[in-house]
Amino acid sequence: MATNRETPIQIRKEEFKKIGYQLIDAVADFFDTIEEKPVTTGESPRQLQTIIGTQSIPEEGKSVEEILTKATDLLFNHSLFNGHPKFFGYITSSPAPIGALADLLAAAVNPNVGANSLSPIATEIEKQTVKWLAELIGVSPNYGGLLVSGGNMANFTAFLAARTAKAPKTIKEEGMATVAQQLTVYCSKTTHTWIDKAAVLFGLGTNAIRWIPTDSQNKMDNNVLEQTIKADLANECQPIMVIGTAGDVSTGAVDNLKGIASICQAYDLWFHIDGAYGIPAAVIPELNDVFEGIQAADSIALDPHKWLYSPLEAGCTLVKNPNHLLETYSSHPVYYNFSTTDEVPALNYYEYGFQNSRGFRALKVWLTLQQVGQRGYIKMIGEDIALSKLLFDLANKHSELEAITQNLSIATFRYIPLDYRPATEEETDYLNRLNESLLNELQQGGQVFLSNAIVNGAYCLRACIVNFRTSKKDIEEIIAIIVDEGRKKHNQLLTKID
Ligand SMILES: *Cc1c(COP(=O)(O)O)cnc(C)c1O
Fold first, then answer.
1. Which of 21, 65, 248, 260 could anchor a disulfide with 190, C-beta 3.0 to 4.6 Å?
2. Domains in the chain and their CATH numbers?
3. Ligand 1 pocket, CB under 6 A
4. Does pTM top 0.90 for this prediction?
């Protein structure tokens, strides 16, 4: 023991080893048997409150072994497992096992990656992680940036940098009062809801968002985009940025990024890409065409905790010219701050974004990138896409399913009772209701977890495969599960109507 002080928080070495190994054993068993468990138990908040009890904060401390065993038990028996091979809801991936070990290691050393002097090696590792992420998706390794908590924060971090770069220079001191013309931003109507929060948070207001319609493939209509920018300029607004989506959250569509890039160049606008979900697929050589234009982005948001399989939380903002981050988030001029004797000036991450004290998120991403390698990601992401296409094809062939869309690793489809062809509005409404209650049933049932998408007014089931445990067999099995539950639900609803 390195210290003589007796505190209730210390754990002696022998005990730490014993309970630590027990925990590792339990986690190893959990990973090994996850597919035998239900995806979720579907228990209600009230049931769960009863299980954990309603007692007040303990007055006296308890044995570590006892409380850790209890917590392990609670988590393994009452959680929803996004690492389950039949979990396809929203965009939440199976976590990489090495990420769990990395978080343990990071928490043990606990570097504060806000300042270089507090986290010398961690800062260098984060820098390298950011560079590798840029290389992985195929943009210049000179992009700079930082890790944040997720896609929302990654987009916010870029949004404020864009506002600082394009709004009147006095905005940092004077605030929005200095802005004579309404600042406007452009994105497709499929853009994730972070944009609403950003417009509120950074003072533009949600009326500043120009929601551009999409074409038949769910991509932003770039002609309407350009017309809208022109109309705003004529109306004395000041357009500042366009947001392209690389993998929209509902259907996985990737905007025509090259087209957006040239519009941004023509009108001197900041080009941001929200690639929180989809941009890792740019690693696949066959998809080069789909992602053409990303090299022109002024900023990119991506989420290692989605398709790169990092455990929550890990998002990343990449900025082509990282000085924009310093200009936005550092309170001192760049040149004065860190004149070190080193050939490379120290990077203090608190000057790159919103956080001051920062955890070592980069470690889990850095280690996973090394374990898997570029080729490993090409393989895994490619397989996820192939499984999604298989799901779409099986739905397409099935007489009681209608396949709707398939992009990247997202398939949407719906259940339609045999020989049921909706002709009237009422029948279309019924199908929407049927699929909604089918989804609720499936989400509670624990056999498979899907989410929903509304595509051209149709309520669809949506499967997003960012799951390295999923196999062909799982896809075939869920088709049977969905049809089976769909029939039951249809019969149930019919009886209710009668
Ligand atoms: C998931 C997602 C977000 C939000 O990311 P969080 O990590 O949940 O904050 C933003 N945009 C897109 C396109 C996404 O898929």
1. 248
2. 111-360 (3.40.640.10), 374-497 (3.90.1150.170)
3. 91, 150-152, 192, 194, 245, 249, 274, 276-277, 303, 315
4. yes
Q: What is the pLDDT at residue 336?
A: 39
Q: What is the pLDDT of residue 67?
A: 97
> Average pLDDT by consecutive 10-residue portion of the chain (498 residues)?
82 97 98 97 96 95 96 97 97 97 98 94 98 98 98 98 96 90 97 98 97 96 98 98 97 98 98 98 98 98 98 98 96 50 80 96 98 98 98 97 97 93 85 96 96 94 98 98 96 78
3-class SS letters over 445-460 = HCCCECEEEEECCEEE
The Cα angle at residue 388 between residues 413 and 490, in degrees rounded to 5: 25
**Calpha distance 272→294 (Å, rounded):** 9
**Kind of pairing, strands 209-212 and 183-188?**
parallel
CB of 220 closer than 8 Å to CB of 260: yes
pLDDT value of residue 339: 45
Give the distance, in angstroms, between the CA of residue 441 and the centroid of all CA atoms in the same chain.
25
Q: At which residue do the structure tokens 């010219």 appear?
A: 321
Residue 222 buriedness (CB in 10 A; 0-12 / 13-18 / 19+): buried
- Using alpha carbons, select from 282, 244, 246, 276 the residue that is nearest to residue 136: 282
Give the phi and the psi of residue 481 in degrees, each rounded to 5.
-60, -45
- At 247, phi and psi to the nearest 5? 100, 85
**Which of 93, 147, 148, 152 has most ligand 1 atoms within 8 Å of CB, for mutation?**
152
* Gap between the Cα atoms of 214 and 223, Å rounded: 10
Pairing of strands 270-274, 299-302: parallel
Q: Which pLDDT does position 421 carry in this prediction?
A: 79
Residue 150 CA: nearest ligand 1 atom is 7
How many angstroms separate the alpha carbon of residue 34 from the centre of ligand 1? 26
